[in-house]
Each structure stands twice: as structure tokens, then as C-alpha cells.
Amino acid sequence: xxxxxxxxxxxxxxxxxxxxxxxxxxxxxxxxxxxxxxxxxxxxxxx
Length: 47
Hints:
- By secondary structure, this protein is an alpha+beta fold.
- It has one helix at residues 3-10, and strands at residues 26-27, 34-36, 44-46.
- Strands 1-2-3 form a 3-stranded antiparallel sheet, with no helix packed on it.
- The model has no long low-confidence stretch (mean pLDDT 77).
């Protein structure tokens, strides 16, 4: 087995700086925040 292949297989799908399309489902704690929940992993809070 190649260690790089293993790291790539278990690594994150999206990285910092990547562009993804989100659907904001509810308001966040602050007035300028929104919350998105999807199948790509943890909850995403946007401002």
C-alpha cells in the first residue's frame, strides 16, 4: 500500500479556499449568520 493513497482516501473532501454551493437552512445565533447542514460533514455556519 502507498501511504499517499491512504492519506488521500481518508482526507477531507473540501479544503480551505475551495468554493462550494450551500443552501442556508436556518438563522444563526447572530443576525448576520446562517446555518447549513449537509451530507458533506459537520454543520457549516456562514456570515
